[in-house]
Structures are given as C-alpha cells and as structure tokens.
Design brief:
This protein is of the alpha/beta class. It has two domains: about 80 residues, no CATH class; about 60 residues, no CATH class. A hairpin with an 8-residue loop joins strand 2 and strand 3.
Length: about 190
C-alpha cells in the first residue's frame, strides 16, 4: 500500500513541478534477460562477453543485455547497434558499436612481379621498399633503356617510414628520377 501511495505523491509532485517549467531526466528501466533485436546471435554473444569482461568495478554480473540494430540491416559482415547492459547492482550502461568485415582475400597465386630493367642500388633503404621505389622508375616504351637505378634514403628509413629519392640513368646519358616518402605503411612483399 505504501508503494502505491508513494507513486501517487511522486506523480503529483512531478505534475506540479512540471507545470512550473522544472524538467526531469527520465531514468531508463533496467534490462532483464537477453534482447537481440535484428542483430545476429554472434554479435549478441560477443556483446555479452564484452559486457561481462568489462563490467564496472563492484557492478556484479550481467543480469540483462539489449542489443538493437540501428540501421536498415545488421549481418555478421556489417552493422551498427546500440547496447544497454544492466548489472547485478542495478547499474545500467549504454553504448553503441559498428562493425564491418574486410573484403575476402583474392583467390589464386599473387600476380607475377614485373621484372626490373636492372638491379637497383639501395642506399639505406630496406630491400622491399628499394625494389618498390625502383619499380616506379620511368622506362618509356621506345625510349632509351635504363642502365642504372639508385634508390637513396635521405632520412632514416625503416620498414614502415622513410623519405628518399630514386635516380635513373639512361643509355643515352640522360637522367631522371623522383622523390618519395612512405609512412605507416606495410612494406611491399618481395617478388
């Protein structure tokens, strides 16, 4: 009986104060059980595992989780969702997440590397990057053949970052070249 009386008093107080321009923030009801709305079971299962593993200190175990798709379609491959979790101590957390899979790897052997007209001279550049930079040397069809390619690092070059230049010497004595840099990239595969 006291619960009903308290609810009537709170409702009357809210109505009175609401008319005075005083607003209230609603508190979401705790989630109980497991609700997966238009989300694959694998996503629900991983969300539950994450919630259990990352529970706030003192929150206790997960007593409820709600995972709802927020886009037209959620699949194992891609989607966006909201997640609400209720813990044993009554604490409720809300978050969002999105996921997408990379395109499948190509099937079959990798394409054959284009042979270089000459073996490059590499000065301070990791071999994989050196060959990649040398491969960009301009060998114009019908033009003079390349007789040398020198790839030089102008800073400290590692497998993931560097600056440098490529100098090309042609059979007729003419020269060409270019400057280059790479940063945070994965070194190309050796042929």
């Amino acid at each position: 009986m006291l619960g009903l009386k308290a609810m009537v008093i709170v409702t009357a107080l809210a109505t009175t104060l609401g008319g005075c321009g005083i607003g209230f923030t609603s508190v979401e009801a705790p989630v109980t059980g497991r609700i997966c709305d238009r989300v694959p079971q694998s996503v629900c299962a991983s969300s539950l595992a994450d919630a259990e593993q990352n529970a706030p200190p003192g929150a206790g175990g997960v007593v409820g989780i709600e995972v709802r798709c927020t886009v037209a379609s959620c699949t194992d491959a891609a989607g966006d969702a909201t997640i609400r979790v209720t813990y044993a101590n009554g604490q409720t957390t809300s978050s969002g997440m999105g996921w997408a899979q990379a395109a499948p790897a190509p099937v079959g052997p990798p394409p054959a590397a284009t042979p270089l007209p000459v073996e490059p001279v590499c000065r301070g550049v990791p071999q994989d990057w050196c060959r990649d930079m040398a491969a960009s040397a301009d060998a114009t069809a019908g033009g003079p053949p390349i007789v040398s390619i020198v790839v030089t690092c102008t800073t400290v070059c590692t497998t993931s970052a560097g600056d440098g230049k490529t100098d090309v010497m042609y059979a007729d004595g003419s020269k060409g070249g270019s400057s280059w840099n790479y940063n945070g990239e994965v070194a190309p595969a050796s042929p």
